[in-house]
Amino acid sequence: MGIEVLPATGRWDDFATFMVPRKPGGGGCVCMSYRDARLGMPERIAYMHDECEREPGPGVLAYVDDQVAGWCSVAPKSTYRRLLNSRTIPHLDEERDPWSIVCFVVRAGFRGRGLMHELLDGAVQHARAAGAELVEGYPVDTGGAKVDVISGYVGTVALFEAHGFRKHAETTAHSGGADRWLMRRVLA
Fold first, then answer.
1. What is the per-residue pLDDT across 111-143, written as a single tens digit (0 to 9) for each?
2. Where on the phi/psi map is residue 60: left (φ > 0), alpha (ψ -120 to 50), or beta?
3. What is the pLDDT of residues 30-44, one digit of tens each?
4. How many CA atoms lie within 13 A of 24 on its CB side?
5. In 3-state terms, what secondary structure has residue 49?
6. What distance in Å separates the CA atoms of residue 20 and residue 23, rounded to the nearest whole number?
7. How many CA atoms lie within 13 A of 153 on its CB side?
8. pLDDT, tens digit (0-9, with 9 covering 90-100), for 8-24
9. Across the strands, what pairs with 156?
10. Cβ contact 92:168 at 8 Å
11. In this structure, what is the dihedral angle of CA atoms 156, 161, 89, 92, given to the nearest 10 degrees?
12. Which stretch of DSSP H or E encloses residue 186?
């Protein structure tokens, strides 16, 4: 199984294959929940299309044997409206404009293969290549219990710890009833 993680820049068609609703009038996040959830579907699609056309792009895509299999949203925290206005995620060192990892999506048929690990490594590499000094995520603390797909979209504390992130601050955010942490990894 050949796995490659690449920036979404210039890869709109691949992003759209599983992140944009297929049915006209269909709903979905299109990875806009943290960016600007106020937008309607046509505006969400246009926004993400534009993001995929310019640097640094909105995140990274995972490919398994040349098939797009997963997504991780990673970008400067200042580009996520919901994070900037959050009352549940602490605001720390904002002058450093940390990069934020806010969600993971692994397509059905590719789950259970460790792709979130590959996506997290790829997200960190992408942030570093774009000049980030600091990257952070807001994963759920499962206490070792299995987490459902919906609640696990933010990743788990164990996943982030396995990739060199450390708990930095408690949040008042929850996912699936479990607490979430602000976790960080210094890159520079």
1. 989 999 999 999 999 999 999 999 999 999 988
2. beta
3. 988 899 989 999 999
4. 0
5. helix
6. 9
7. 15
8. 999 999 999 989 988 87
9. 140
10. yes
11. -170
12. strand 178-186
Cβ proximity of 156 and 141 under 8 Å? yes
Phi and psi dihedrals of 123, rounded to 5?
A: -65, -45
What DSSP line would sit under 54-68, residue for residue? SSS-SEEEEEETTEE
Count the neighbouring beta carbons within 10 Å of the beta carbon of residue 144.
8
The encoded tokens of residue 5 equal: 């993680």
Amino acid at 92: L
d(CA 90, CA 170): 8
Place of tokens 């960190």: 124
Structure tokens at 116: 């979130």
Joined tokens for residue 92: 């720390």
Q: Long-range CB contacts (< 8 A, 24+ apart) of 165-170?
A: 165/136, 165/137, 168/92, 168/136, 169/90, 169/92, 170/90
Does residue 96 have a pLDDT over 90? no
Measured at the alpha carbon of residue 21, what is the angle toward residues 16 and 27, in degrees to the nearest 5?
Answer: 135
